[in-house]
Amino acid sequence: MLRAWRYDAEEQWHQSRSPLENALAEGFELLRWSVLAASTIGPGTVIVCSKAGYQYAYRLLWALVLASFVAYALQEGSARLSIRGRTTLGGAMRKFMQRQICTSVAMGILVGNTAYQANNFVGAAEALYALGVPRHNPGIRVVIHLLLMLAILATLFLGDVDKVSAVLGVVSVLMIVVFGVAVGELGLNGSKLFLGLLPSTPPSGSAVVAVSLVATTAVPFNAFLASCSAKPPKASGERAASVAVSSMRRGVTLSTWIAAILSILIAATGAGVARRGDVDGSYSVETLVDALREAEGKGAVFAFGFGLYAAAFSSTLTVALGAALCLGSLLSDKDDAAWKPPFGKYARAVILGVNFAAFLVGASGAPTVPVVLVAQVVNGLLLPVVALCLVLCFESPKVISSPQPLLRSAALVFSFATTVFLAADGVLSKVADASVAIDVAFALSILATVGVVALLWWMRKGRSKEQAEFELSCRELPVPNPLASSLGSPSLTRRAQAVAENVAPAP
Fold first, then answer.
1. For the chain, N or C: smaller number of CB within 10 Å?
2. Backbone angles phi, psi at 60, to 5 degrees
3. DSSP codes joined into one string, 45-76
């Protein structure tokens, strides 16, 4: 009763605001979710997408569509889990897995995010080199990485987390404008772009690049970031949960569209450069910058360099913040102040450690390729674990009182199959031929999918039996009088109240 009154009071307050205030609040909420796009579009994404466009034009854009679908399914599912189940993804994993496994997942994410952060630092330096900063000066390199680290720490420790997320949304939109200008200068073939978005057989030798496009878009810590970004309503009940889920879906959808459009524009930039000059199949950021300078002059180079730096800086913020949120959800309770970023002592230690390690790697000039390869393998192995746990959470009465619709379960199962393929291919490609690795990875993903579908069928069958027994027991409960109902009748069990409110029952 008190919860219902609180929700009605919040709704009345919302209605008392002016339309402009409501629009600004909704816009802020949408921009806040754009942190997912900022974490997706980093220097690695810029390099992989531009390489795909440079070498294969528009023929691999369908891989970006697939990656966007998988990323949306995992992020939306994780956020919906936090709203419906009132627990984070890490908290739900602790219910299914032993503490040692959760700790191992947390350490894997920490290692992977540290490696990606080092790559972000190097990407930011590459952007400044493209803008004219001397490349081979060790002193300048140290200063660049030191200033970047200080800027990141100042932004995270001096700014509110929600406001920083909203600012990252604005930066992501600016990146669309910047790369749109670059594509406009280079020219765009609309018909080929549209055909590239449709599923097709990858060109010869492009399978590795296609897999990389999906792997750089669907990353495991984004699922944790989405789960921690979701805010369950203060009031309980289906009405409040539905409103929160609808708002969340708008934000995740916008973030997914921003990331997808940016990736397509970056690929189109690479394709435009390739059309203007001779392409020998080789690719590097320096090669792309030189080709841009010869084709369109300093304006296009500045646009690309600014876009690359914006991608690197926004990604550095989200990678460090995401590492703290992931570890906090996996290793502690949701309300543990020590893990609450940015000032919780453990969260602060993670943020400082990740950035300092990345600074050392970037300032030393050490090659980041081996580090990034390790990160890709680790994150590739973690992604199926995260996807599988997400699938099981929505079928377990320990987390969600009622199962989700079959269509959303199918989307999560497809995402799980895709992550298994990526993980298997990422490991097998290091020890076997690319074509053999892809075939074996595809077979493993089919077997894993069949196993998960059988497990879900068994879980739903058990849930249906449990629900039938529960409904039969409810018929035998005494009917409370109206006064007792208004005061919270003790004749209703916790399970009955949970089902009425569509939330997980209290332990």
1. C
2. -115, 15
3. HHHHHHHHHHHHTTTTHHHHHHHHHHHHHHHH
Instruction: Give CA separation, 326 vs 86, 223, 229, 392, in Å.
Output: 16, 9, 11, 19
341 φ/ψ angles, rounded to the nearest 5 degrees: -75, 150
Contact at 8 Å (CB) between 56 and 220? no
Q: Other CB atoms closer than 10 Å to residue 364's CB: what's the count?
A: 12
Query: What residue type is 101 in one-letter code?
Result: I
**8 A C-beta contact, residue 55 and residue 281:** yes
CA 284 to chain centre: 26
Q: CA-CA distance, 451 to 48, in Å (whole number)?
A: 33
| 285 closest CA partner among 173, 116, 119 | 119
pTM over 0.90: no
Distance from C-alpha of 175 to C-alpha of 38, rounded to nearest angstrom: 10
* Dihedral in degrees, nearest 10, Cα atoms 217, 223, 224, 228: 110
CA neighbor of 121 nearest in space, from 43, 36, 216: 43
DSSP tag of 338? G
Instruction: Map tokens 């039938």 to a residue.
Output: 468
Phi and psi at residue 232, to the nearest 5°:
-60, 145
Q: Dihedral, CA atoms, 358, 359, 363, 365, nearest 10 degrees?
A: 0
198 SS3 class: coil
- What sign does the CA torsion over 260, 262, 268, 274 have? negative
Tell the residue number behind the tokens 């602790």, with chain if given: 94
Radius of gyration of the chain (CA): 24
> What domains can you pick out in the chain, each with its CATH number?
18-369 (1.10.4160.10)
Give which of 165, 230, 227 is closest to 28, Cα–Cα: 165
Mean pLDDT, 10 residues at a time, over the chain (507 residues)?
A: 39 56 71 81 80 85 89 90 84 78 84 84 81 79 87 79 75 81 77 85 75 78 84 77 86 89 87 65 65 68 78 83 85 75 83 89 73 68 83 79 80 88 78 77 90 86 64 54 47 48 48
Q: Residue 81's CB: how many other CB atoms inside 10 A? A: 26
Q: Is the dihedral of CA 298, 304, 305, 307 positive or negative?
A: positive
CA dihedral 189, 60, 38, 23 (to 10 degrees): 60
From 47, 122, 44, select the one nearest 364 (Cα to Cα). 122
Q: Which of 355, 474, 426 is nearest to 208 (CA)?
A: 426
CA distances from 183 to 54, 179, 341, 365, 444 (A): 13, 6, 38, 32, 39
CA distance 92 to 370: 33
CB 178 within 8 A of CB 306: yes
